[in-house]
Design a protein that fits this description.
- The protein is α+β, with helices and mostly antiparallel strands and 302 residues long.
- The chain has 2 domains: 114 residues, no CATH class; 116 residues, Beta-Lactamase.
- 64% of the residues lie in helices and 10% in strands.
- The chain contains 9 helices and 5 strands.
- A 5-stranded antiparallel sheet has the order 2-1-5-4-3.
- β4 and β5 form a beta hairpin.
- It is rod-shaped.
- The N and C termini lie far apart (95 Å).
- Keywords: Membrane, Transmembrane, Transmembrane helix.
């Protein structure tokens, strides 16, 4: 019950008042007062879903009384625009149709069942409103489905774009690792390249064999972190390590040669998670790299 309903009730009241003063009606004053009460009652009743049905009873009463007192059967046509309020639900259509029979039979009664022209007009008007509602409803559903489909396509596009970005990052990681292995870059130099490739906030490399630590510019080595490392790969979240490094995402990668632990790489990220697949690729290649270095060192010694 909104602006349309308010304008509609004013229109109904004005229509009754005009019909009173355009003819010689005995109860013109009473109908004018009743029209005012009708409008006043509409604005007085609280607006909620249940009040719509309640006030429709008053609509039917007011229109039926107006028909009976004026003798104008065409006033029954005033029920047509009210149908727009009851067109959304089958039960409401039945409710409207049932109560609408009252002003229709009132019109038939005062015309001695000789005036029937208003009936097809009412039928055509309500059918037109119903058809118009169905058309708009179908259009609304169509555009809603189209919107949902576009949103799904947008989400899929973002998902595919993320997959492409992830694969691109993995390729860059591979390239960095390959370059390191081919050119035999020390890990203390390589950590700068991989930090830029991953877009992380810093990397530490603990050289266990030589008891040294190297880090990129934004972070400092903290050897106390080593006390928490007891697995080849650890993803720290909501851990003491995260507090020490002031970062929600920290990964520790242990690199071994054939005999012992060679070093530990700590990757620090403050904004985004570090992909597990990327971490596995880094660890596998670092292990291969360290073993290759060990083999080459052994050959040189021989």
């Amino acid at each position: 019950m909104g602006i349309y309903s308010s304008i509609l009730r004013i229109f109904i009241a004005i229509s009754v008042i005009l019909s009173v003063y355009t003819g010689d009606i005995e109860y013109s004053t009473a109908l004018s007062v009743l029209s005012g009460v009708y409008i006043f009652a509409y604005f007085l009743i609280p607006k909620n879903p249940s009040s719509k049905r309640l006030f429709f009873i008053f609509d039917i009463f007011f229109i039926s009384i107006s028909i009976y007192l004026t003798g104008y059967t065409y006033l029954s046509l005033l029920i047509i625009p009210i149908f727009a309020e009851f067109v959304k639900d089958t039960k409401e259509i039945v409710y409207f149709s049932t109560l609408s029979l009252i002003p229709v039979f009132t019109s038939l009664y005062i015309s001695n069942f000789t005036e029937l022209s208003f009936i097809p007009i009412i039928f055509a008007g309500t059918t037109g409103i119903l058809g118009l509602y169905r058309t708009f409803s179908d259009r609304e559903n169509y555009f809603r489905e189209l919107k949902n489909e576009m949103e799904n396509l947008y989400i899929k596009n973002i998902s595919y774009q993320e997959m492409i970005n992830q694969q691109s990052k993995i390729l860059k990681v591979y390239s960095s690792l390959k370059q390191m292995r081919e050119k035999k870059f020390p890990l203390k130099i390589w950590i700068y390249d991989i930090n830029e490739t991953l877009g992380t906030d810093g990397i530490m490399f603990f050289d266990i064999k030589n008891n040294r630590c190297y880090s990129t510019e934004k972070i400092n080595c903290d050897k106390s972190i080593l006390n928490y490392i007891d697995k080849p790969v650890i993803f720290f979240k909501n851990h003491e390590v995260n507090k020490k490094l002031n970062a929600p995402h920290v990964v520790a990668i242990t690199v071994e040669d054939k005999t012992d632990v060679y070093g530990i790489v700590i990757i620090v990220s403050k904004l985004k998670e570090i992909d597990k697949e990327t971490v596995e690729i880094i660890r596998d290649n670092l292990v291969l790299y360290i073993n290759e270095l060990s083999e080459n060192t052994n050959k040189d010694m021989d």
